[in-house]
Write a structure and sequence with these properties.
Elements lengths: L5 E4 L3 E3 L2 E5 L8 E6 L5 E9 L3 E6 L12 E8 L1 E3 L8 E3 L16 E3 L10 E2 L4 E2 L4 H4 L4 E2 L6 E3 L5 H11 L8 E10 L1 H13 L6 E7 L10 H15 L3 E7 L1 H14 L13 H9 L3 E3 L5 E9 L8 H9 L2 E4 L2 H5 L12 E2 L2 H5 L8 H25 L6 H18 L9 H12 L12 H8 L4
Parallel strand pairs: 9-16, 14-19, 14-20, 15-16, 15-17, 17-19
Antiparallel strand pairs: 1-7, 2-3, 3-6, 4-5, 4-7, 5-6, 8-10, 11-18, 12-13, 18-19, 20-21
Helix pairs in contact: 2-3, 6-7, 10-11, 10-12, 11-12
Length: 460
C-alpha cells in the first residue's frame, strides 16, 4: 500500500448511492475511494463529506446488495485524477473516463485532478474574439465569443440537440487545425448519444472530438463526475496543447437532479424546490472553467444545454445558470409550433459579451446597430400582436400592419434556417437589412443614415 492510503473494514450504513464509514482519520474531501467486496470486485467512489470520525462516500456503481460488514474501504489519499493525452481525441469514454470504444485505457504520464485548478483572475484574458456559428440568430443578434460560456435554454420536445449539432458542424473557431471538441453527455438517452456520434462522423471531425457518455441507464451518481472529467480533458487540450476547445454539455438538468438526489440521501436541509443550497456554487465550479489565459493561444468555450422543467425559466437550474454564465440562447415553443427551425427567440436570448466580440472592427461596421434595430423592431412586432388579440387586425394602422409583415418575414427568413444551411456573417447581416426594407425608414432609429444609404438602398 502506497503512502497516504488507508484501509478500513466494514461500513456503518448505506443509503442510496452513499456509504457511511466510521472510525476514519486523515481522510480528505473529494478523496478517491476503492470498495472491495467479498467477490473480489472493486467499486469506485469519492469522499463527499468528512468529519473527525465519519466519512460519507458516494459509490459510482451504486450500493445495491452491498454488505455492511464484509467490505474493505480503501482511501487512496488523492482526489480522482484523469490521465490525459492528445491521443484521446477521436475516442469515446464513459462518464469516469473508461473506454467505451473497445480501445485500450488512456496511458499518460500526465494525470489531472478532475476538480480542476482554479484560474487566477488576474491571468484571465477577456473574451473578445468572434466565433461564427453559421446560425443567423446567434451570429447576428446573440454573438458567441471565444472563451465565453453561453447556455442553450430549451424544454422537452424542442430541438436543442439538433441545434447543438448544427453549431458543431458549422462553427468556425480560429485556426480549424487547432480546433477540438469535448462532448459530455449527462444522463442522455442512447439515441441522443448515437445522433451526436453520427454527426461527428458525417462532419468528418471525429478525429477532433473526444466524447464522455453518461447514459440514462448508467448510475446517476456518475453524472456528478462526468462534466468534471470532460472539462479536465478540455483544460489539457486548451492550456497544454494550445487548442481552441468547444465544450458541449447536455443535459445540465440531469446533473442538477443527480445533485439533488445525493443531497437528499445525505439528509441535507433542502433549499428552493428541494435542491441543495450550494447549487449555485456547484454549478459555478463547472461553468467558471471556461475562458482564456493571458499569453496562451488556447481557449475553452462552453455551450451547456439544459431543459427547463415545465418551460419554467425561473426554475433553480436555468435561473442560477443565467446568473453564472454570460447570457443564454432561449428556444421558444411558440416558434416551434409555427414550424420555424431553429426556434430561437431573440427577445429573451442574450449574449453579454456580444458588444466586445463584434466591436472594434472584429465584424462588419454596421453589425452592432443592425442587431439593435432588429431587436427593437421584433419587440414592436410582439406588441402589435398583443394589440391584434384585443382589437383585431382590421383596426391596425398602416405602420402596425407593416410591423406584422416584418415579423412574418423575420421569423421565416432570418430566424428560420435549414439545419444543413451554413450562413456567413455577411449573409446574415444582409438578410437582416432585407427584412428591414419592409419598415418605414423614419422608424429605423437605431441605424445611421449612412448605414441606411449604404445597405438599405444598395442595388443587387
Amino acid at each position: 500500500m502506497s503512502i497516504g492510503q488507508r484501509e478500513y473494514v466494514g461500513i456503518r450504513s448505506a443509503r442510496g448511492p452513499l456509504v457511511f464509514v466510521e472510525g476514519i482519520r486523515e481522510v480528505g474531501y473529494n478523496e478517491r475511494v476503492e470498495i472491495v467486496i467479498p467477490s473480489g470486485e472493486t467499486l469506485h467512489g469519492r469522499v463527499l463529506e468528512v468529519s473527525d470520525t465519519l466519512a460519507v462516500v458516494e459509490v459510482f456503481e451504486g450500493t445495491g446488495g452491498l454488505s455492511l460488514r464484509d467490505v474493505r474501504i480503501r482511501f487512496l489519499g488523492r482526489p480522482f485524477h484523469l490521465p490525459v493525452n492528445e491521443l484521446m481525441l477521436g475516442r469515446v469514454f464513459d462518464g469516469l473516463g473508461h473506454p467505451l470504444d473497445g480501445g485500450p485505457p488512456p496511458v499518460s504520464r500526465i494525470h489531472r485532478d478532475v476538480n480542476g485548478s482554479p484560474m487566477n483572475p488576474v491571468a484571465r484574458a477577456y473574451p473578445e474574439d468572434f466565433i461564427e456559428t453559421g446560425i443567423s440568430t446567434i451570429d447576428g443578434m446573440n454573438t458567441l465569443v471565444r472563451g465565453q460560456k453561453l447556455p442553450i435554454f430549451s424544454a422537452s420536445g424542442l430541438p436543442h440537440n439538433e441545434l447543438a449539432c448544427q453549431i458543431i458542424r458549422h462553427a468556425r473557431i480560429g485556426d480549424q487545425e487547432e480546433f477540438a471538441l469535448v462532448f459530455a453527455a449527462i444522463g442522455v438517452k442512447h439515441d441522443v448519444a448515437r445522433m451526436f456520434q453520427d454527426i461527428f462522423e458525417e462532419g468528418e471531425v471525429t478525429g477532433q472530438v473526444v466524447m464522455f457518455l453518461n447514459l440514462a441507464d448508467d448510475p446517476s451518481i456518475e453524472r456528478l463526475l462526468t462534466p468534471r472529467v470532460a472539462l479536465t480533458m478540455a483544460e489539457y487540450l486548451a492550456f497544454d496543447m494550445q487548442k481552441q476547445v468547444l465544450v458541449v454539455m447536455t443535459d445540465m438538468n440531469n446533473y442538477g437532479e443527480a445533485l439533488r438526489e445525493v443531497a437528499t440521501a445525505k439528509g441535507e436541509v433542502p433549499s428552493r424546490k428541494g435542491f441543495p443550497g450550494y447549487l449555485y456554487s456547484d454549478l459555478a465550479s463547472l461553468y467558471e472553467r471556461a475562458g482564456r489565459i493571458h499569453g496562451g493561444k488556447g481557449s475553452i468555450t462552453q455551450l451547456p444545454i439544459l431543459t427547463m422543467p415545465n418551460d419554467d425559466i425561473t426554475h433553480p437550474i436555468p435561473d442560477l445558470t443565467g446568473y453564472i454564465t454570460e447570457g443564454q440562447i432561449v428556444l421558444d415553443r411558440d416558434l416551434e409550433k409555427k414550424g420555424i427551425y431553429p426556434p430561437v427567440n431573440p427577445l429573451p436570448s442574450l449574449s453579454r459579451l456580444m458588444s466586445d466580440g463584434i466591436g472594434g472592427g472584429r465584424t462588419r461596421a454596421d453589425h452592432p446597430n443592425l442587431a439593435s434595430q432588429l431587436y427593437a423592431a421584433y419587440a414592436q412586432v410582439r406588441q402589435v400582436e398583443q394589440l391584434v388579440s384585443i382589437v383585431g387586425e382590421e383596426e391596425l394602422s398602416r405602420v402596425d400592419r407593416l410591423y406584422l409583415e416584418f415579423g412574418k418575414a423575420f421569423e421565416a427568413r432570418f430566424i428560420g434556417q435549414p439545419a444543413d444551411e451554413r450562413r456567413t456573417l455577411e449573409q446574415t447581416l444582409d438578410l437582416g437589412w432585407e427584412c428591414l426594407k419592409i419598415l418605414p425608414e423614419e422608424d429605423l432609429h437605431r441605424v445611421s443614415l449612412e448605414e441606411i444609404s449604404r445597405y438599405l438602398h444598395r442595388k443587387g
